[in-house]
Structure formats: C-alpha cells, structure tokens
Q: What sequence folds into this?
C-alpha cells in the first residue's frame, strides 16, 4: 500500500489536502454530499478547484471507519480506487492506494 495523499479536516465536515503520484499533483477537497437521494449515494463529492473528480462512501473495517474513494479524470486510463483513513485523533487522514490483483 502507498500513501498518495495527506488531508486535514475542514470546518464543513469534509477533508482538504493534496494527492501526489507520478502523474497527479493536485489539491483535493472532500465536500459532504448534503443532497444524498439514497443510502447508496456517496457521503462526499471530491473536487479539484470547481471540477468534480470523484466520490467517497463511508465504510467500516472491523472497528475502524474509513472512506472508500473513487477518483476519475479523462487523462487516466481507469479510475483510481483508494481509501481515506483518519488518524486516531481525527486531525489528519491518509489517502492509501494499493494496486488490485489481476
């Protein structure tokens, strides 16, 4: 697994930080999705500037809650699937990516 982003909480209940990979270097915001029309709707919408680039859903693994993240962009061959894990103190979170098995 690789940490590809570091985030801090926002006043609005989301997260703000930077994602960095070999081809991506962008400030990313997790904005709460206040207009969820179903339980399957994402909990957060992801933005770079004003452009929506993905979504995140609340998940639970054992005792820990995390966000399942999907980022997409026309320049990417396929969407990036990652997970945002908040630290115990809630003052930061790591965006973690792992290549899927083929």
A:
């Amino acid at each position: 697994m690789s940490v590809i982003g570091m985030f801090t909480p926002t006043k609005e209940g989301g997260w703000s930080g930077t994602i960095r990979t070999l081809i991506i270097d962008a400030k990313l915001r997790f904005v709460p999705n206040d207009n969820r029309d179903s339980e399957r709707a994402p909990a957060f919408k992801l933005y770079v500037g004003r452009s929506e680039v993905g979504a995140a859903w609340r998940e639970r693994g054992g005792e820990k809650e995390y966000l399942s993240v999907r980022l997409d962009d026309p320049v990417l061959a396929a969407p990036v699937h990652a997970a945002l894990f908040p630290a115990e103190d809630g003052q930061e979170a790591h965006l973690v990516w792992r290549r899927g098995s083929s």
